[in-house]
Amino acid sequence: MIKKLEKHISEQLSFLQGKKLLIACSGGLDSVVLSYLLRQLKFEIGLAHCNFSLRGKESDQDEEFVVELADSYSVAVYTETFDTKKFAKEHKLSTQMAARQLRYHWFEEIRQDFTYDYIVTGHHADDDLETFLINLSRGTGLKGLTGIQEINELVVRPILPFTRAEILNFAKEKNLYWREDSSNKKADYLRNVLRLNVLPPFKEAAPGVIASLQKTQKHLKDSYSLIEDYLSLVYTLVVQEIPEGYTINIDKLKELPNTNALLYEITSPFGFTDFKAVSELLESQSGKQVFSETHRLLKDRNVLILTEISEKKEEKEFYIKKNQIKITKPFQMELKSIDKIGNITSSTIYVDNDKIDYPLVVRKWQEGDVFFPFGMKGKKKLSKFFKDEKLSLVRKEKIWVLTSNNQIVWVVGYRPDDRFKVDDKTKNILKVTRTT
Amino acid sequence: MIKKLEKHISEQLSFLQGKKLLIACSGGLDSVVLSYLLRQLKFEIGLAHCNFSLRGKESDQDEEFVVELADSYSVAVYTETFDTKKFAKEHKLSTQMAARQLRYHWFEEIRQDFTYDYIVTGHHADDDLETFLINLSRGTGLKGLTGIQEINELVVRPILPFTRAEILNFAKEKNLYWREDSSNKKADYLRNVLRLNVLPPFKEAAPGVIASLQKTQKHLKDSYSLIEDYLSLVYTLVVQEIPEGYTINIDKLKELPNTNALLYEITSPFGFTDFKAVSELLESQSGKQVFSETHRLLKDRNVLILTEISEKKEEKEFYIKKNQIKITKPFQMELKSIDKIGNITSSTIYVDNDKIDYPLVVRKWQEGDVFFPFGMKGKKKLSKFFKDEKLSLVRKEKIWVLTSNNQIVWVVGYRPDDRFKVDDKTKNILKVTRTT
Predict the structure, then answer these.
(1) Looking at the structure, do residues B274 and B331 belong to the same domain, yes or no?
(2) For tag attachment on chain B, is the N or C end more exposed, with fewer CB atoms within 10 Å?
(3) Angle at alpha carbon of residue A328, lines to A324 and A334, rounded to 5°
(4) Of residues A140, A190, A261, nearest to B225 (C-beta)
(5) Residues B40 and B142 in one domain
(6) What range defines the domain where residue B204 resides?
(7) Residue A16: is its pLDDT beyond 80?
(8) Is residue B112 within 8 Å of B343, Cβ to Cβ?
(9) What are the Cα distances from residue B327, in Å, to A4, A326, A391, B367?
(10) Taking CB atoms and an 8 Å limit, are A198 and B193 in contact across chains?
(11) Which residues contact A134 (CB under 8 A, 6 or more apart)?
């Protein structure tokens, strides 16, 4: 398995080579094997363990186990205890979703604070099959069947192509120790039922199912990207931006096959769910309109006009004073003076604190906004930038900018501005992180 | 369940109303309930039962049971005995595939001979979930996950939206009798393993899975038709017909996103599987070529030329003499003088035997071919007809025509010609059926 993983990394995940990896380590079979393998492959690693306090003494023993494992490997270890039930209750989440949110948020913190390049997890092919069936059982679309992402921004899953059986055999062969999570043996979550009762007879009767799933998901991913391409082509043909929102050209839409399905694809991301009412607009009189929770679709001769239902004006700008360390609206963002810059990511940037003027303002982007994309010479219209990034209408509409004196400092989540970047002369670095 | 089915038929399958239905009746729960329901809804029905001789005495008892059921309903019954194992061996098919071929071929014969409008089967939602998982376990693509078709030409599955549990409850409530197929209890076929061991715990843990599957498959079907639309758009942009085959415009293809994926979609139906070699043609020198079993792809400056690897010329025309009752090459086709016409389908047409000249010739269609589409005034180029029918390149290439004096009598599988149709003055009707 070591050779196979080495080959897989060099062929498919070569960007990992020479990088510092933070391993999400529960102490269970999968993460223990992952830790062992990455150490054998001479990666610089650290182990991060979350104690969710869900199984009393057993949880604490898991933590001890991971600490000892890290010691035996002489690598760094990070642990944190969470009151998962309380967090779940406060945020109205299931225990599993709460644990997931806490986990990835904390991993990202550790990654940044200790300058790891990537977070790696021990997800494997059987997890993928389980996820596929769970999504199916809840009702999903093409995207929901394409599987667990092997690379999702800075989270990488190097043993995703391997099966649980392979991993187990390897662990036994190498006499590895790991912790069994007693809750995995209780058939109370759907995932556990699948693992314990559903998949064993399925895999026995159809031994190739895991390989087949991988092949199938490869096809589904290709199909999904073809649809994305098609829709972005359709957008350029029928949708036009206007100051108040967008217009959809009815005549051009009708020239395309499956007009109603396309109209649905265009409008459903804005919350329109009454497919019939939306379709009827195509044939109705001017002035007729349909509402979603957030948007309005108005028939006006040969176009449908799509506009946001207006929010209160005063909510549209959010101010950040000097030395303010966080905002909670319109999203959570933290500001911190630091000494040394780390990696710029979609959620974190570093700016020269002396180049900016307070108060900073967070607002939605506007037609006409211009910025100097980080790492490029010269300026660019935001509308052009979004077009090049192939952003959908909905994603565009959700984009906020951080501004100083009405100059863009950061297209939040996308690209910092070159004018405010940290350079040789910078004395005060401000780290800005969007945390929700 | 009666009311629910009545509603479903009136909303989704209204074309069935007043029609004569041939029920594929094994004697098992599903087809017995289907027969009961359709009779209650006052359809004119007949029962067709295949005895596959696979379970000895039990098979014969099933047949008796269906005959008695039909008698008790005072409706027509048709039975036929097949030597499935022999047929399977001769045609190198699995027993299940052999039974399937024999069944549908025979149902279609009965349907035509006794002028039923549609064949109806008792497939239900649980069958759909099983099929989904079977396809998944073998590796499939988007199309393979979109489910059992409710309407497939003249075969209709009216109780596809109903679950096995609903059907079973209904049968018990109405005190219906049915035959249990003992082979369904043996976990030897994958389908039986799924039904007996895999799906019960899955459905128990995720009670909504069947409804979710239906919702999911609806989305997948929509996605699939978007891809079809996109590809047909891509074809019009980059593919051009030439006498020897097709050209693919490389420059135009490169203007589209995911060029390689698109090239794969265009070429894979012609048997090209070496994705890498095909992609490399885009950048290679003129003259470089790649072969599939049936086709050649040749780089020529800014186009790829796609041509069929030439067959021997003499194999390209097949003659039918007067009173000949069948041909076996290039496909099986039967010719029969009959008294009364039935429904024209994709595999059967009726022509006025006095309007045609022998020998009839079966050949591939050619650029320049023209015909008079049945039911339309005037003539049409075949190339235009295929374009309107949105046929893919591959399907077009496989199309045969039946000709009389080099006039097209039938675009086989698609449309008969108006000039040779049966009318008031016809004395001799010839029924022509493609059987493979």
Answers:
(1) no
(2) C
(3) 50
(4) A261
(5) yes
(6) 2-209
(7) yes
(8) yes
(9) 55, 82, 57, 25
(10) no
(11) A190, A191, A194, B206
Measured between beta carbons, the chain A residues lying within 8 angstroms of B236 are none
Kindly indicate the confidence band of residue B333, based on its pLDDT and cuts at 50, 70 and 90: very high
**Among candidate residues A257, A275, A308, the one where a domain is terminated:** A308
Distance from CA of B174 to the nearest CA of A (A): 31
Residue B356 near residue B409, CB atoms below 8 Å: yes
Compute CA distances B326 → A388, B111, B113, B355, whole Å: 61, 20, 18, 19
Given an 8 Å threshold on Cβ–Cβ distance, is A190 in contact with B198?
no
Residue range B415-428: mean pLDDT, rounded: 92
* A234 residue type, one letter: V
The closest CB to that of A223, out of B211, B212, B227, belongs to: B227
Chain A stretch 203-222, residues whose beta carbon is closer than 8 A to a beta carbon of chain B: 204-206, 208-209, 211-213, 215-216, 219-220, 222
Contact residues for B262 (Cβ-Cβ < 8 A; gap 6+): A226, B231, B234, B238, B253, B256
Q: Nearest residue on chain A to B225, judged by CA atoms?
A: A258
Residues B262 and B330 in one domain: no
Q: Residue B110 corresponds to which tokens in the numbers above? A: 């009965």
Per the CB < 8 Å rule, is B139 touching A208? yes
pLDDT, tens digit, 9 for 90 and up, residues A314-342: 457 889 998 899 998 889 999 999 988 88
Interval B366-418: pLDDT, tens: 888 999 999 888 999 998 899 888 787 777 888 999 999 989 999 999 999 99
Contact at 8 Å (CB) between A271 and A215? no
> What are the structure tokens assigned to B121, written together?
């089967």
- The pLDDT score that the predictor gives to residue B397 is 80
A387 touches chain B (CB under 8 A): no
A231 vs B: CB within 8 A = yes
CB B181 within 8 A of CB B28: yes
- Say how far apart CA B220 and CA A134 lie, in whole Å: 17
Residues of A in contact with B238 (CB under 8 A): none
Whether chain B has a CB inside 8 Å of the CB on A336: the answer is: no
Dump pLDDT digits (tens) for A227-246: 989 998 899 899 998 888 89
Cβ–Cβ contact B201 with A under 8 A: yes
Helix (H) or strand (E) holding B34: helix B29-40
Are the C-beta atoms of A215 and A130 separated by less than 8 Å? no
B265 CB neighbours in chain A (<8 A) are 226
Task: Tell me the pLDDT tens digit for each residue of B353-377.
Answer: 999 999 999 999 988 899 999 988 8
B261/A213 CB distance under 8 A: no
CA B311 from centre of chain = 27
Last residue of a domain, one of B209, B227, B261: B209
B300 shares its domain with B427: no
The answer to whether residue B237 neighbours chain A at the CB level (below 8 Å) is no
Angstrom distance (rounded) from CA A237 to CA A229 = 13
Identify the residue among B136, B138, B188, B265 best suited for mutation to test binding to A, counting A beta carbons within 10 A and taking the highest: B136
Residues A8 and A147 both lie in one domain: yes
Here the CATH number for the domain that contains residue A69 is 3.40.50.620
Do the domain assignments include residue B133? yes
Cβ contacts of A226 on chain B, cutoff 8 Å: 227, 230-231, 258, 261-262, 265
CA–CA separation, A228 and B257 (whole Å): 10
**Ordered alpha helix ranges (H), B206-327:** 209-238, 250-255, 259-267, 275-281
Cβ pair B190:A211 closer than 8 A: no
Nearest chain A residue to B138, by CA: A212
Question: What is the chain B residue with the closest CA to A206?
Answer: B137
B143 in A contact zone (CB under 8 Å):
no
- Tens-digit pLDDT profile for residues A260-273: 889 988 898 888 88
Give start and end residues of each alpha helix (H) in B139-208.
164-173, 190-193, 199-205
